[in-house]
Amino acid sequence: MPPRSGSTPILTGDRGRLAEIIWQRLKPECWPVRPIDLPTGSVLVGGAVRDALLDRLSDAPDLDVVVPNNALKSTRQLAQRLGGACVVLDEQRDMARLVLGGWTIDLARQEGETLEDDLNRRDFRLNAIALSFDGSPRLLDPTGGLEDLQDARVVAVREANLQEDPLRLLRGLRLIAELDMHLDDPTLEMLHRNRSLLPDAAPERIQAELLRLVAAPAADRAIATILELELLKPWTKQDDAAAGKERSIRTAQASELLTDKERKQALPLARLTQLLPDAGLKKLRFSRRQLQRCERLRYWIKRSTSIQGHACPEGLTESERLQLHLDLEQDLPALILTWPAALQKQWLERWRDLQDTLFHPRPALNGTSLQEALQISPGPTLGALLRHLNLERAYGRISTREQALNAARSWLSHQAVQTDPDGSCD
């Protein structure tokens, strides 16, 4: 989530004072589990500590807790006592998730003999900051994460840590997108050097990272880096990547025309479509709904720009224009973002007018009404008539029920003239 309005990062000063402020911002009195009920020696690590330092916590932040041992057993006991759910994340590594009251609390057994060993096995230094709350809160930062937060940079702890869990390669790009930071040069080289390992990560995990990335504030810059590093090459083709670079420039410029609500709807879809082809989305197991949205947007990007090689939607036939608006009624801004500025403003203004019958097409009459009024049986003729009436209404040639019925009778009469008694065309 983006920082709250008026947020105040705390990145310098006495460590003891920083720890107290982090604890206040975390509001442990609001947690669904009292800190005292967590296993003895529990320590908060990762994103919640980082986001508290940056003052960008949500109302119910995900909490990652390192415990000395028996993480799975402790999670099951908490779930049973508090009425939550225990989700096993990794039985071998003793990791589980407590889902309770809209919160998720992950418990993991400490890796290594000491907490410092555990933190040195994490992905990036800004995620390797811990808060001990057994007694007075204490801040632990063995890798230099505080300094990275001050400099707005994402630095890998060690290359071997990225290799151990290749999803971390993509997570680094997601972090710079969400936090509006930059990757340091050695970390960039690590990502490029190990990019062939990313397919070893589960497709569902890659998908989850990408969905967060494309919705993030600095996603366009992160996507440009992904394309440069060829991080998603196993799921893309070279021509897809080249087209993506071109569209990302237009997307970044055109998004200024949208409201915040429109950006949240349009930008993630436009970015995801530019980043991965349909085949790549399928391999990464995106949902059917996500696939359909991307497929439709991709089709209309190609169709509306294939006329003389540039965006020219006015060259579409009336029927094609109607189908465009039927396919992309809610997602039309994502298409408009890929066009030159000269076309964008006019189309956005019409799309924002919910009474515009072309941009927000609605049936002139439903099939049941037509069957009852004109004694038509279900079948191809009824389907063709419905499409005809929808087109007439979309272009303002009919507006009332009576006009729709008259237009239907006229269309049926015209069809009868063209067809002989045997059903063959003259």
Question: Please, could you describe this protein's structure?
Answer:
With 426 residues, the chain is α+β, with helices and mostly antiparallel strands. The radius of gyration is 28 Å and the shape is elongated. The N terminus is likely disordered. α7 runs antiparallel to α10, α10 packs antiparallel against α11 and α19 packs across α20. The protein contains 20 helices and 9 strands. Among the domains are: 151 residues, Beta Polymerase, domain 2, CATH 3.30.460; 52 residues, no CATH class. The strands form 2 sheets. The chain has a 7-stranded mixed β-sheet with strand order 3-4-5-2-1-6-7. Strands 8-9 form a two-stranded parallel ribbon.
Summary tags:
20 helices; 7-stranded mixed beta sheet; 426 residues; alpha+beta; 51% helix; two-stranded parallel sheet; disordered N terminus; Beta Polymerase, domain 2; 9% strand
